[in-house]
Design brief:
It comes from Coleophoma cylindrospora. GO terms for molecular function: beta-glucosidase activity. The chain is 24% helix and 18% strand. It has 772 residues and is of the alpha/beta class. It has three domains: 5-346, TIM Barrel, CATH 3.20.20; 374-589, Rossmann fold, CATH 3.40.50; 639-771, Immunoglobulins (Immunoglobulin-like, Sandwich), CATH 2.60.40.10. β24 (752-760) and β25 (763-771) form a beta hairpin. It is globular and about 80 Å long. It binds 2-acetamido-2-deoxy-beta-D-glucopyranose (12 copies).
Length: 772
């Protein structure tokens, strides 16, 4: 089942052996590609553009230092900088230059906290953060994670995640990132990169590109090569590459290439993706690092634009020879080394960076506590990303009087003793991920390299019990039974279920029978049943959502270590729910169409044709007229909001020519004019209810020739009762453009664009038009 992993924890002997001997790093015995039915060949783009620092003064200064440094190195030392050392305690560590006192770069997982260490925090997953729709929290999250990584002396954080984008609904890693909307992913990536790098750590945005499923993501000796994601040029630009533009614009110092193939060429040796799109069109100044074990060739990957290989020499054990015999130019090697050092200097890591204090598992070491007060932020994000989707007759918030007698059911309510038996489950190694499994206790994150290592877990049961104690109430509980006894006088039954998912395999279902029966069984005997669902990805709810005794339903996401506290804040109304879904919840699995499941192909050269183009998630539901159970962008509050006074103001200081102007040089993030704000759109949001609450106002544009509507702005505003606030959306040239595959440029259309502002993708309260 477990094929391989990215960024493995090379900590225990066992996992080390697993890495070395597992079939993930062995080569396919199939070599004849001429029989493969090509969807598209990947066009050759050579040579690799040399990084030059032209993006900004800061990059230019970094390149001056990087060039000076690299000029002092001999061939062996340059090569050493581009390879990983597996003996290190870090998940990856580039070679050092002892002669010049440079220690190499330490890379660590991951996107939701340092994995495999103690006295570090377990943050909510990327999908949970996205459900907050809060740009400030996204920034704060990035900053806090970087504080911890930097505190331990780590140079490069293996995150944030901008792909998988979530094309495959059952995809094993969709929860690591924000979900299937490129705009939302882009904003989150940009905020995270800024937050991370403002605190001096190099962000490694991943995975570049199209790593949308786990099934056959790597080559195997049993079958053959890895899956080929065959994606057309328009879809690449408007959907999958789009969010990375934000990451690059924010300065991302590193990018990780992905495992699978793209148009039959491995991503880590795909010259179109690395030399072409990333380094030419998007002006990337930093370095590309392979996903762990993702390098599948030597010369080819070097010349296609790969700069650093992880986690060990791999195909570059003879890079020195390749350079001396001319198959890889010395300029290419210099560029590899220079790009890495440029990112190092760009983040000023040469100035007073903390010593590395990553410790091998279970080896006594001094306590280095890097958590600061991040628990507060984690609790806040936990609550802000909790999505209320049903709340009959104001069941919630609970009050001392309506919740004096509380019953708690379900395996997800408490941290199970069995989940704590094996210490490696929560941080020792890669297998930590299996600890947070159905029936193995409350789910706070998903599995794989995107997982984290909680210092403790505040379970829902524990936090609710504290509240009940304070309210002088009483509790009954049963975490095991599928058909628990409900005491006749109980006022509210809280049922906790979850849906686990992990890197290295895709899910087989979006529901499970045990959990659905549990909910229905409780509801049969309890007229006030509240369901709390921790889910790594989409979880359907049809078997009980219309049950009249199910009075409230909460998607509690993957909230991290403060899970129970965040939930209690919402349950008892200390915090008004404001989270919104960052994906569509369908009525039945088939409604997701072909992309419900990963593409299954047993051939030696498996192919996944992304023929649906940009029509995934709500774009597809809108086109097909499919009615979802809960649409993208949906979430309830304890208060109500009205929308009024839409205003659209065109900025008069920018050009609205059809194409961006030709005579401007590309900087990191792409053509600079793409980021010009062309319109400022606003609306007034009034709180017409009784409690203060935050509303996520969403802007959707109907761009001619594109899906009927696409998210192109959001603003979360806090509003007091009977007061109003203004939601503001800055619409850039890119937001209004479509990709012109002939001109190979972003293009505006002389047409009418519909503008809608609403509370979700299907609750559009204000409509207007932009005429271009
Ligand atoms: C690869 O397949 C093609 C087409 O079947 C065949 O002509 C060619 O000889 C094969 N090459 C090798 C090395 O087997
Ligand atoms: C993918 O596209 C190619 C080229 O159009 C076609 O030959 C192949 O059959 C397609 N594969 C699948 C699984 O649809
Ligand atoms: C893949 O092939 C399609 C169709 O030929 C093409 O539009 C696209 O640019 C190619 N992408 C890559 C990364 O090679
Ligand atoms: C290469 O890096 C390794 C690991 O840091 C170090 O032990 C070795 O001395 C370096 N080699 C050279 C030639 O500097
Ligand atoms: C690397 O070079 C050594 C000899 O120096 C040789 O034995 C080995 O096969 C080479 N490896 C590859 C992958 O070319
Ligand atoms: C909700 O309240 C209304 C009015 O009190 C009542 O008629 C209705 O039965 C209640 N619904 C449920 C599901 O309890
Ligand atoms: C609990 O987790 C262990 C792995 O740690 C797994 O083997 C077991 O199947 C899980 N239990 C259930 C009921 O899922
Ligand atoms: C879904 O994909 C998984 C692998 O990710 C595979 O095992 C399963 O058979 C697929 N199911 C269907 C219905 O295709
Ligand atoms: C709802 O709960 C009440 C009280 O336990 C029970 O009598 C009724 O049958 C339940 N309704 C459903 C649809 O299960
Ligand atoms: C949605 O419509 C497309 C295009 O008409 C079609 O190919 C697809 O099967 C439909 N999807 C579903 C789930 O009905
Ligand atoms: C845009 O809409 C206006 C009416 O609001 C109409 O007069 C005009 O023809 C439309 N333009 C285009 C290009 O459709
Ligand atoms: C705005 O437009 C959408 C889609 O055309 C429509 O469903 C919605 O009712 C409109 N809203 C208003 C307030 O007219």
């Amino acid at each position: 089942m477990r094929i391989s992993h990215s960024a493995a924890a090379l900590i225990t002997t066992n996992s080390l052996l697993a890495c070395v001997s597992g079939y993930s790093f062995e080569q396919s015995t199939y070599t004849n590609e001429s029989e493969v039915p090509f969807y598209g060949l990947s066009p050759p783009v050579y040579p690799t553009p040399e990084g030059n620092g032209k993006s900004s003064l800061a990059w230019a200064a970094a390149y001056v230092k990087a060039r000076e440094f690299v000029a002092q190195l001999d061939l062996e030392e340059k090569v050493n900088l581009t390879v990983g050392y597996q003996t290190s305690v870090c998940h990856g560590h580039t070679g050092s230059v002892p002669r010049l006192g440079f220690g190499g770069l330490c890379f660590e997982d991951g996107p939701s906290g340092i994995r495999g260490q103690d006295f570090v925090s377990a943050f909510p997953a990327g999908s949970h953060l996205a459900a907050t729709w809060d740009k400030n929290l996204m920034y704060a999250y990035g900053k806090a994670i970087a504080e911890e990584e930097k505190g331990k002396g780590v140079n490069v954080i293996l995150g944030p995640v901008g792909g998988p984008a979530g094309r495959v609904t059952r995809g094993g890693r969709v929860w690591e990132g924000p979900g299937p909307d490129p705009y939302l992913i882009g904003i989150q990536l940009g905020q995270l990169v800024t937050g991370i790098q403002d605190n001096g750590v190099i962000a490694c945005s991943k995975h570049w590109l199209f790593n949308e499923q786990e099934y056959r993501r790597l080559p195997t000796i049993n079958y053959g090569e890895a899956m080929s994601s065959n994606v057309d040029d328009l879809t690449m630009h408007e959907l999958y590459a789009w969010p990375f533009m934000n990451a690059l614009r924010a300065g991302s110092g590193a990018v990780m290439c992905s495992y699978q193939r793209a148009n039959n060429s491995y991503s880590c040796q795909n010259s179109k993706l690395m030399n072409g799109v990333l380094k030419t069109e998007l002006g990337f100044e930093g370095f590309v690092v392979s996903d762990w074990g993702g390098q599948q060739s030597g010369v080819a990957s070097a010349n296609a634009g790969l700069d650093v290989v992880m986690p060990w020499f791999g195909w570059w054990q003879n890079l020195t020879t390749m350079v001396t015999n001319g198959s890889v130019s010395i300029e290419r090697l210099d560029d590899m080394a220079t790009r890495q050092m440029a990112s190092y200097y760009f983040l000023k890591q040469d100035e007073k960076y903390p010593d590395l204090s990553i410790s091998p598992y279970n080896v006594q070491h001094p306590i280095i506590d890097v958590r600061d007060n991040h628990s507060q932020l984690i609790r806040e994000i936990g609550a802000a990303g909790t999505v209320l989707v049903k709340n009959t007759n104001k069941t919630l918030p609970l009050k001392a009087s309506t919740a004096r007698f509380v019953s708690i059911f379900g395996y997800d309510a408490e941290v199970k003793a069995e989940a704590w038996e094996d210490p490696t489950r929560y941080g020792g190694g890669y297998d930590v991920n299996w600890g947070w499994n159905t029936f193995n206790g409350t789910l706070i994150t998903g599995g794989g390299s995107g997982s984290n290592s909680p210092p403790y877990v505040v379970s829902p049961f524990q936090a609710i019990q504290q509240r009940v104690v304070a309210n002088k109430g009483m509790l009954r509980w049963d975490f095991f039974s599928g058909n628990p006894t409900v005491e006749a006088s109980t006022q509210v039954c809280l049922v906790f279920i979850n849906s686990y998912s992990s890197e290295s395999f895709d899910r087989l279902s979006l529901t499970d029978e045990f959990s659905d029966n549990l909910v229905n069984n409780v509801a049969t005997n309890c007229s006030n049943t509240v369901v709390v669902l921790h889910a790594a990805g989409t979880r359907l709810v049809e078997s009980w959502i219309d049950n009249e005794n199910v009075t409230a339903v909460i998607y509690a996401g993957l909230p991290g270590q403060e899970a129970g506290s965040s939930l209690v804040d919402i349950l008892f109304g200390d915090v008004t729910p404001s989270g919104k879904l960052s994906h569509t919840v369908a009525r039945k699995e088939e409604d997701y169409g072909e992309v419900l499941n990963s593409t299954i192909d047993y051939s030696a050269f498996p192919q996944s044709n992304f023929t649906e183009g940009v029509y995934i998630d709500y774009r597809a539901f809108d086109r097909n007229g499919t009615v979802p159970r809960f649409e993208f962008g949906f979430g309830l509050s304890y208060t109500t909001f009205t929308y009024s006074n839409i205003s659209i103001v065109q900025r008069d200081n920018v050009s609205v020519a059809e194409y961006p102007s030709k005579n401007i040089s590309i900087v990191q993030g792409g053509h600079p004019e793409l980021w010009d704000v062309l319109f400022e759109i606003s609306a007034v949001i009034t709180n017409t209810g009784e409690v203060a609450g935050a509303e996520v106002a969403q802007l959707y544009l109907g761009i001619p020739t594109a899906p009927v509507r696409q998210l192109r702005g959001f603003d979360k505003v806090m509003v007091q009762p009977e007061e109003a606030a203004t939601a503001l959306f800055e619409v850039t040239r890119r937001d209004l453009s479509t990709w012109d595959v002939v001109a190979q440029e972003w293009k505006l259309q002389k047409a009418n664009y519909t503008v809608s502002i609403g509370a979700s993708s299907r609750d559009l309260r204000l409509n207007s038009t932009i005429v271009l």
